[in-house]
Design a protein that fits this description.
- Helix 4 runs parallel beside helix 5.
- The chain has a single domain, classed as Rossmann fold (3-Layer(aba) Sandwich), CATH 3.40.50.720.
- It is of the alpha/beta class.
- It starts with 7 loop residues before the first strand and ends in a 6-residue tail after the last strand.
- The structure holds nicotinamide-adenine-dinucleotide.
- The site of nicotinamide-adenine-dinucleotide has 30 residues, from helix 1, helix 4 and helix 6.
Length: 241
């Protein structure tokens, strides 16, 4: 018996990386998983590999959210979990002159998470059950130079707490997860020197695997976390102790 047996769970940005690991772990624990992404070919392949279904979803589009949520309700009749995982990264700091990059990061990481929560909140509230897990970052826990990314991840942490409070007496939980350096394309996209510096700053002396974050997400989606809401779980090998 799995910890998510029969639960219907949507994971955004899950064609690859941490999202794919989260979808995989949820599926292994018995959930009916909906893999979503803008990378349609890769998303379909990932879904097929783990026995899930795939829907194309750009998290910045409210219309697209409405279509996906309606189709999931038509097929399954309920939504038990949403993992707002889709995200993009930039190292741009306050000296950068690219307002467009700032805006795009906020659109995907913050607005995308907001739209996802807004789309499932009425459904979960009427079911009187559900679990929303928002993927923030250690960048949402402390000061960092990458201002756009940091702002978006602090926003995710803040919105999580507000929504947790609003939905608590409807039986719906909402928590944030804060990964440190995890082996995905975001980390692989950094300069070797930056990665070396990052790893040196981690007390456990290594980066994390996507599966190590996924298991925490599965826990928060499951009934084992029945009394946890508005919490932030840091998964970083001790990076921000
Ligand atoms: N890797 C790390 O070290 C790390 C650390 C902390 C937090 N995070 C967060 O973890 C999450 C997953 O990132 P990852 O490391 O797996 O990176 P990744 O680049 O491998 O995966 C991100 C996924 O999001 C998807 N995506 C991007 N824009 C989208 C959009 N508009 N709509 C839908 N999907 C979209 C991408 O196609 C991709 O599949 C992100 O929110 C990221 O900020 C990553």
């Amino acid at each position: 018996m799995g910890t998510l047996d029969g639960k219907v769970i949507i994971v955004t940005g899950s064609a690859k990386g941490m999202g794919a690991a989260e979808a995989h772990d949820a599926s292994r624990q018995g959930a009916r998983v909906i893999v979503t992404d803008i990378l349609n070919e890769q998303g379909k392949e990932t879904a097929a590999e783990i026995g899930a279904t795939y829907r194309s979803l750009d998290v910045t589009s409210k219309e697209n959210w409405n279509e996906v949520i309606s189709s999931v309700i038509d097929e399954h009749g309920r939504i038990d979990g949403l993992v707002n995982n889709a995200g993009i990264y930039t190292s741009q700091d306050i000296f950068s002159e690219s307002d467009d990059v700032f805006q795009r990061i906020i659109e995907v990481n913050q607005l995308g998470t907001y739209l996802g929560m807004a789309a499932v909140a009425p459904i979960m509230a009427s079911q009187k059950s559900g679990s929303i897990v928002n993927i923030s970052s250690v960048a949402g826990m402390r000061a960092q130079a990458n201002i756009a990314y940091m702002a978006s991840k602090w926003a995710v942490r803040g919105m999580t707490k507000g929504v947790a409070k609003t939905l608590a007496n409807s039986g719906v939980r909402c928590n944030s997860v804060h990964p440190g350096a995890v082996n995905t394309d975001i980390l692989f996209g950094l300069e070797d020197e930056t990665v070396d510096q990052l790893i040196t700053s981690i007390p456990m002396g290594r980066s994390g695997e996507p599966s190590e974050v996924a298991r925490v997400v599965t826990f928060l989606l499951s009934d084992s976390a029945s009394y946890i809401t508005g919490a932030e779980l840091v998964v970083d090998g001790g990076m921000i102790i």
